[in-house]
């Protein structure tokens, strides 16, 4: 938070009568600190020998500052937060007023990608209105100055900038809470074993937002993993829920002793990459295994035919 600029006092021998002046200030603590909007009024009175601010023409204290009292304040402890898809989240917003001020209305609006909508509101004498799944606590509003908004089950469409606007009988101020929604990806690795060489497919589904990357590595027996760079990708797909899916394809080259292929997925919602691995046998082992399976199926079929003929030649009882 930046320090206030110093005030330079100016003495006025015969000052004019001074009326109360109101100011509004927005304060944002650096990093992830709270944000505050404050309505303040001046306290000092002009008089003989009182120094005045050179630009504002307001009386200064002996310390050279303009004395003010906070009349109304709106605060959020969470100016930005991130939550997972389908989870519940509470957007913090609180307020405090002078004892003579009466709360008249609380309104939460969402702004995202150039459009806005009313999420929830509470008006004295009318109660609460808004979208399904969004709620305020009227009792907390009137007794504790708590105007926090709860969203029951997040969707992709709930992402954006939420404006908490508090209105009293005299003042109005607001705070903004930036909400980001994330969805964890799921990874599945499949191998088309009927083809030579093998074709590998890494399916990545259900992720949001688009901050995602897929990479491949290959490891021979007794060796270290090495990156593979010749993978191809499907087109990006988006489902009805707003999450994305994509597939990555790779032709495996197992070598003479086979190799392990691994699909690595990184995403903004993950603390560490997701991985899926599969072993690819060399062509000669796969061919031998295929012959063995085919021979086994032939013997089982032959045995079933023999049993069927034996059953057909058995004499039937009278």
Automatic annotation (TrEMBL):
The chain crosses the membrane at residues 288-307. PROSITE patterns: IG_LIKE (PS50835), IG_MHC (PS00290). Signal peptide: none annotated. Keywords: Immunoglobulin domain, Membrane, Transmembrane, Transmembrane helix. Residues 62-180, 185-281 form the Ig-like domain. InterPro entries: Ig-like_dom, Ig-like_dom_sf, Ig-like_fold, Ig/MHC_CS, Ig_C1-set, Ig_sub, Ig_V-set, Immune_Resp_Modulators. It holds the Pfam family C1-set. SMART domains: IG (SM00409), IGc1 (SM00407), IGv (SM00406). PANTHER family: TAPASIN (PTHR23411). This is Tapasin-related protein isoform X4.
